[in-house]
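Appendix B. Extra example for self-study. Work through it before the problem class; the solution is given directly after the inputs so you can check yourself.
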Amino acid sequence: MRILVANVNTTASMTDAIAESARSAASPGTEIVGITPRFGADSCEGNFESYLAAIAVMDAITSYDGEFDAVIQAGYGEHGREGLQELLDVPVVDITEAAASTAMYLGHKYSVVTTLDRTVPLIEDRLKLAGLDSRCASVRASGLGVLELESDPERAVEAIVAQSREAVDRDHAEVICLGCGGMAELEDKVKAATGVPIVDGVRAAVTVAEGLVRMGLSTSKVRTYATPRQKKVIGWPFQF
Amino acid sequence: MRILVANVNTTASMTDAIAESARSAASPGTEIVGITPRFGADSCEGNFESYLAAIAVMDAITSYDGEFDAVIQAGYGEHGREGLQELLDVPVVDITEAAASTAMYLGHKYSVVTTLDRTVPLIEDRLKLAGLDSRCASVRASGLGVLELESDPERAVEAIVAQSREAVDRDHAEVICLGCGGMAELEDKVKAATGVPIVDGVRAAVTVAEGLVRMGLSTSKVRTYATPRQKKVIGWPFQF
Amino acid sequence: MRILVANVNTTASMTDAIAESARSAASPGTEIVGITPRFGADSCEGNFESYLAAIAVMDAITSYDGEFDAVIQAGYGEHGREGLQELLDVPVVDITEAAASTAMYLGHKYSVVTTLDRTVPLIEDRLKLAGLDSRCASVRASGLGVLELESDPERAVEAIVAQSREAVDRDHAEVICLGCGGMAELEDKVKAATGVPIVDGVRAAVTVAEGLVRMGLSTSKVRTYATPRQKKVIGWPFQF
Amino acid sequence: MRILVANVNTTASMTDAIAESARSAASPGTEIVGITPRFGADSCEGNFESYLAAIAVMDAITSYDGEFDAVIQAGYGEHGREGLQELLDVPVVDITEAAASTAMYLGHKYSVVTTLDRTVPLIEDRLKLAGLDSRCASVRASGLGVLELESDPERAVEAIVAQSREAVDRDHAEVICLGCGGMAELEDKVKAATGVPIVDGVRAAVTVAEGLVRMGLSTSKVRTYATPRQKKVIGWPFQF
Amino acid sequence: MRILVANVNTTASMTDAIAESARSAASPGTEIVGITPRFGADSCEGNFESYLAAIAVMDAITSYDGEFDAVIQAGYGEHGREGLQELLDVPVVDITEAAASTAMYLGHKYSVVTTLDRTVPLIEDRLKLAGLDSRCASVRASGLGVLELESDPERAVEAIVAQSREAVDRDHAEVICLGCGGMAELEDKVKAATGVPIVDGVRAAVTVAEGLVRMGLSTSKVRTYATPRQKKVIGWPFQF
Amino acid sequence: MRILVANVNTTASMTDAIAESARSAASPGTEIVGITPRFGADSCEGNFESYLAAIAVMDAITSYDGEFDAVIQAGYGEHGREGLQELLDVPVVDITEAAASTAMYLGHKYSVVTTLDRTVPLIEDRLKLAGLDSRCASVRASGLGVLELESDPERAVEAIVAQSREAVDRDHAEVICLGCGGMAELEDKVKAATGVPIVDGVRAAVTVAEGLVRMGLSTSKVRTYATPRQKKVIGWPFQF
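Solution. Structure tokens for the complete assembly:
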């Protein structure tokens, strides 16, 4: 089974980290292919960048040269999953949703801890649309940007650990979903500080995608995610 | 005051019809400028096309050469309004939301009647995100495509009138929002058939936008719709 | 166009301040007429007073001698709007709802900051009934009475500014609706302290009412707000 | 124990029927006193009439000459209960709420069957405000007016039985609340036709009120229903 | 009238205290019979113990030798009420629900204050299922176990008073439901400290049960709570 | 990896069918062990039987002699999952929830089609508690009992196919969860009749459980599902 894991930003090192994380949860025999969009922001931290990423991921996936069995959209709180579902016949799994649905098997309430405060409403909105918000205790932000996770990891970890503690102590979360990826040690430290299970969206998405493929299930095509009707679409596929 | 009214599809005749409709609700002294995206589908009827339109509208608005006081995104149930809000300092009004908030002043419950069935969930989702869904009695579809409104108007009108009647009789709607534009006679016929007020999203959006400008109000920049951070964005603005 | 702006209390100086505020948002050609009820409390701060005001406003509006195109009920969180809608053929706009629907175009979440704590549940209930509550971050009170806004304005402003800051910092409001009127400087100070857009309900209601009139829209009469059936009503209109 | 049961309309024969019904559920030692407002509509079928009744009931109760232990507001879906709670120190029970809270002990979902269609949204709104709506399967109307229950009882009963059957068969109600009073045989016929428990709001309210009095409980005065502040209230109490 | 009041744990002294409390709210002529399950935990503080109690209460009630008119399940936030409703023809009243529906007649919002933190989600879930959660301001825990209420009453009272104060001051509760029973002085102290009405679930349940019996109402048998179909049930009734 | 799949009824042939179904979705290396409770009903169709099953499953699992990595509770809409979570350190997956969370990856709305009408509210309640209800279009029943699926399979299939069609056509479901197991051909026929993906709860649960185990995740023990406190529990473990 081959699963494409699409980064939503254009930073190739992030794609590598995400793919690495995905591989750590994959079954033997599952091939993980990391996909980096050819346009868009080097980190996705808001609606404009996320909308651009939505199209960039569709561009990258539909121009992927090869077979694949499922697609993971590996951005937290990002737009675009519904578009991929229309364009593809294989299952599409969003990591925000995979983390939430996984967390709901582990505790009564879960929280999401992410980086920038401005992305909190995007995550809240995606969870609301997905209908996975009623057991969400809170979405909290560390206040650090996506790329600072790489540039000053120690401070980033500290800030995320602090917010995770607040989520457990004040918001009564029993599980933490980490809304930012690519740091092996982060998970361990949050777990040590809070004593609750930590869910990584990318890994959760791999298990969801594998499960769907194994059951022979894919996106329903009867209504919302039907293949787009044949029509004139100017400029698509993008020619640059 | 100058208001840009952005069509979400690439059909110029639709832009003209939308702009015409906008002008019919504008105050003296308000200039309405219709904007047609330079790429995207000739009609927007699903998530892929809507996401592409979201970017195409941002592309068109940000490359508009001139001053303007507000922007109306004139697509029913479409993605993208949040991105425009980040990129601009002037108010942005989505017609789905303008129609709903206007209808809520006129009756206890309202319904939306649109064209294709597959767009119903998109409209429902946008209303849910906007927090304007709790008094929505139903979103109903005539089963006809956007362009069929132009090619076979009589049948289109008939189908929409029939659904509007159902909305009033079965779903207890007291107001109908027409989720498709550009047809003067449609409004009259639905009104005659149902006896309830008919809200046109484009016209409603013009009055909302004018009101915001007159009060000197624009998008809050403290969190969700803050201007994007300076960063590397590959391929944007689009160079084709 | 003539719009009646009904104060809900019997303090004429409040009516003047409200009308003044309304005029500052009105288009050229719109005449604003302030209406003071002939009975009721000199300030409305609870359910009994609000129910009495509901009837007093209906009494005042239905005995107004002249034509008018719309009515604004200028009380925050008050009862009565639905009754006016039944009795009149022109649009009726409640300022609590106008402020909320306007704020929702400006930010992801809004808060209302009002005077007395005991009126908070009234405002929450009106927003819930109006279906405009899901994006309301909080309704906060300064703890001061309506008339203290006039008698000790400095302290009143300070208390309201403090609560507005809390709304933005703790409740993540991106817009503030001021649930108390008649103070020009209040708005400036709250804006300066928080950096978010400030919505005044009276001004917002004027733009909503004008918009409805301009579009030729008024209250649906098919169900909830149908004209009352002919029947024996003892004591009405009030003869004192 | 003395309980005042306030009719919301000015038809004395309705007051008698309501008081009779109340007595049939009262404990030995409980005195039921029927109260007819001195102004208002002879039947309450909409917002204007209901707001007027709200004030008329407050007028009647506060001018009642004697002691009492609780008040029942005996109108279905009417305004005003919150005002009475502020003005009085004894418990106030609304029959819409008493019927609903009682029905919820008897089945998984309940429906309300009432008279005029235009009162359905009022009942829905009162249940929503009361937080008793989530197990309400439907509010249905027979299409007949309140007074027709008296003038053509046979047809009225038939229409209400028909709607009750629909509530059970289509909406999956397991209990029916009759949103209209004064007809002994109605209850029997609806029960025979549906096989489900039938709740009469007036009787339910008597048991709730008695229970509160017996437990020594009354309205909380710390916030929403605090006694009105001392202030100038023009024209109240009404002098006619 | 005879009402069985079933303790959910196997501590007989608790049963006595509960029955005593029930008697204090019962009408003359109502006989209260305390029931202690013959198996299960000596205190119920979690899901396993609560599920076991659910079956133990069904075992105890169905093997009760004598007539009875109603059953009260006297455990806060416990499982099982729906099963009793299927097995019996008389009304079944859960104290969590009786406390909540009673509190809703007394204030705009109520809070529940209970013992162990781990039972908070159980109470929240029961209120959600019962549809009585929308006016619940909070469920708070003192952090003490059920039996510590008996062993160190002073400290227990202090901790519960402290949480009740928080509920009123921070969560804006206007009524407190005590989610733990058997302590006469507790109620007085919480009332003195907060100034709000205190609802005891057992007493509230007695008045609800008496009311239902007096009105001749019992559980609807048309669907959810229909008598179990005849079938082979191994091991039931329990033979030990 | 060894997964225990617990049937909720005492019919061993059902356990075999469930285990067979589970095996069809298991990865190589996963051992599925079917568990039949030693007491309880031969089919679970209501609250009493479900509560009894809850305890019977806990009895069976805790007395299982051997190691295991996860438990699946294979009853649709049944009580008990929370109790197992407290008693065990390995993940517990309920098939109602697994089916729903899986369906939500495949379409905008899903429906559940089950057997007896009386179990519909149980399923609705479990989905509400799980927070997986907001995208549930409907829960529909074929009107046939669990064991009739075995005794008259043809008629059972027909009835379930008919309800599935209604779910898609009327309720706008895009995915069907089959709330009854053990029939290979059922799935094919429903799929052929509706054209939408069909989710089997048991198979979905296997993929969820395997995923959790693979990620090293298990139930959070910090609050709701903490191991029961040491205390006196009379009669447990059951000695018969």
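Self-check: Chain F has a mean pLDDT of 94. If your reasoning did not lead you there, revisit section 3.
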